[in-house]
């Protein structure tokens, strides 16, 4: 959304109240004033769009996830623990773009551990996951799949599916995270036996694509 610079004459007391509220919300004076005016005049700002997406995710969360507080309108972090020795933490960070293009944002999945065997398991899982996604999306002629994998970190660009409402976008992102988390935990619970569960996971992934791609 395009922005321009304008001059406004405001009372000192108003600016003081705006600055205090902006600090509490972790945003800037200009951004808060923009949001207040947009809400008053029924305009949709990027912040309002992102908030609606994140609210939709929040409403769908189950008890496996905890929300980590963020001082950013564009970022939401979910945390969960693996049922594995030392109970390592997995974080799912959703960062949305203010101006979506081919992608609405990105999902970053990270594991908190210094254990070499755990990092190896994490990376091996995502090698499998990337291959699954590429193979499945190819069936739908989707050429927009984009991801990165490094030690202990997987980044997946979220495809901009046209026609979804902001709430539906949030539901789709959560559906993706929930399936990914379920599969990751299944893999860590018994890596050697995972092959027997893979067909069911792949069927579930393909069923999700029948509704929408993200």
Commentary on this structure:
The protein has 214 residues and is an alpha+beta fold. The protein has 2 domains: 1-43, Arc Repressor Mutant, CATH 1.10.1220; 46-209. The chain has 6 helices and 6 strands, in the order αααββββαββαα. It has helices at 12-25, 29-40, 46-60, 116-138, 166-189, 194-209, and strands at residues 66-68, 75-81, 89-96, 103-112, 147-150, 153-159. It has a 6-stranded antiparallel β-sheet with strand order 1-2-3-4-6-5, with helices on one face. β5 and β6 (153-159) form a beta hairpin. The longest helix is centred in the C-terminal third of the chain and has 24 residues, at 166-189.
Oligomer: single chain
| Low-pLDDT residue intervals, each spanning 5 or more residues | none
What percent strand?
15-25%
Q: How helix-rich are the residues, as a percent range?
A: 40-55%
How many structural units, i.e. domains?
2
What average pLDDT do the residues reach?
88
What structural class do helix, strand and pairing data support? alpha+beta
Main sheet: strands, sense, barrel: 6 strands, antiparallel
The gyration radius over C-alpha positions equals 20 Å
What is the H/E order? HHHEEEEHEEHH
Overall 3D form? elongated
Measured between the Cα atoms of the first and last residue, the distance is 22 Å
| Strand element count | 6
Number of DSSP helical runs: 6
Lateral arrangement of strands in the main beta sheet? 1-2-3-4-6-5
